[in-house]
Amino acid sequence: MEKKINLGIVFGGQSGEHEVSRASACNVIEVIDKEKYDITLIGITKDGDWKVYTGDYKNIKDGSWEQDTDKIHADFSIFHDPIIQDVDVFFPVLHGPMGEDGTIQGLFELMNKPYVGCGVLASAAGMDKVASKMLFESAGIPVGPYVYFKRRDWEKDPDSIIDDIAGRGFPVFIKPSNMGSSVGISKAHNKEEFIDGVNEALRYDHKIVVEGFLNAREIECAVLEENGEIKAAIPGEVVASKEFYDYEAKYSDDQDSKIVIPAQISDALLEKIREYAIKAFEVIDGSGLSRVDFFVTRATYNIYINEINTMPGFTNISMYPKMWENMGVSYAELVEKLIQGAAVKRVNN
Ligand code: ADP
Ligand code: MG
Ligand code: MG
C-alpha cells in the first residue's frame, strides 16, 4: 500500500474567528479520506500558542480539546519538531489576521512545505481592504466610493479628514483595513458617530478605510482553482436580518440571516459577477480558493466588489461550500480538490 499523506490541519488562531475556525476544521476532518491521509491536528490557542493534539477531533468544535492535557504536545519548535516536520501538506483552516493574511503562509514557505489556499501575497493583499481595492480598480472591477487614511494622519489633522468625509456625505462605513468578521466596523450618520467609529477601528489597525454607504444586496461568488483552471460558482445571496451583516448575525446559532443560492438576480448580473470574481482572484494572484463578495445596489443594479476572502467560512453549511454543492461538487469532494491542489502546487514550483 502507498504511504499515506500526512495532512496537518491547523485550526483556532488568535483572530476573532477562532470559534468559526474550530467548527470549519471539525467538518473538514469529518470528510477526509482516512485511508489516504494521516491527520496531524495542530491547534492555535487564542493566546497564540501552538499545540499538537492527539485526542479525538470531535473535541475541537467546542474547544474542550484544550482541557485534554495528556493528549497535548505543546513544547515544540515548529521548525525542528519531528511531528511537525512529518507533515506533508498543511491545511490552515484559519480566518482573519494571523491565519488568512499571509503570516502563516510565510511560515509554511520558510518551512518549505506545501499548503492549501492562497500564497503570501494574495493572502496579505486580500486581507488589506485598501490594498485589495487598489488592485481591483487596476483590473477594471468597479469599487464603491472610498477614502483611507493612517493613524498618523488622524492624529496630525483630524478636522480636515472629518470635513472631507462630511463633504462627501453620510452615512459611511468605517473599517479597519485589515480585519474580518465585521470586527471594528461601524456605520456613521454624522460627525460624532464618525469620530467614534474611527477610534473604534483604530483599535484594530493603523489604516482605516471609509466607504460611502451602499443600499445594496450582498452577493457572493466562490472561486476554485482546479488543475490550473480558475472556476467561479453561480453566486449566492446573503439576506441579513440586521442593519448590516455583523459578527453576531454571521455566527450566532439562532441567526435569521439566510443564504439563497443561486442569488435571485438576472442571469446577466450573475455572469458579470462570476467574471469579476475570477478577475479579482487573478489580480491578487490567488491560488486554491477565495470567496469574492459583491454589492448589487437595490434601485439601480450596479455591481461593486466589496472584498475578497482568501479563507472563507468553511463549515459544511457555509456559503463557500454551499455554492459548490449547488454546482455538483460535494463538501467532501471540495476538500479533496483543495488538498490535491496544494500537493500539485508543490510539484510545479
Ligand atoms: P468583513 O471583512 O469584516 O466581512 P465587510 O467589508 O464585508 O467586512 O463588511 C461587513 C458588512 O458590513 C458587510 O457584509 C455589509 O453588510 C456591511 N457593509 C460593509 N460595507 C458597506 C457599505 N459600503 N455599504 C453598505 N453596507 C456595507
Ligand atoms: Mg472579510
Ligand atoms: Mg465581509
Automatic annotation (TrEMBL):
The keyword Hydrolase does not apply. It comes from the Bacteria. Residues 133-340 form the ATP-grasp domain. It catalyses: 2 D-alanine + ATP = D-alanyl-D-alanine + ADP + phosphate + H(+). Keywords: ATP-binding, Cell shape, Cell wall biogenesis/degradation, Cytoplasm, Ligase, Magnesium, Manganese, Metal-binding, Nucleotide-binding, Peptidoglycan synthesis. Cell wall formation. PANTHER family: D-ALANINE--D-ALANINE LIGASE (PTHR23132), D-ALANINE--D-ALANINE LIGASE A (PTHR23132:SF25). This is D-alanine--D-alanine ligase. The lineage of its organism: Bacteria, Bacillati, Bacillota, Clostridia, Eubacteriales. The gene is ddl.
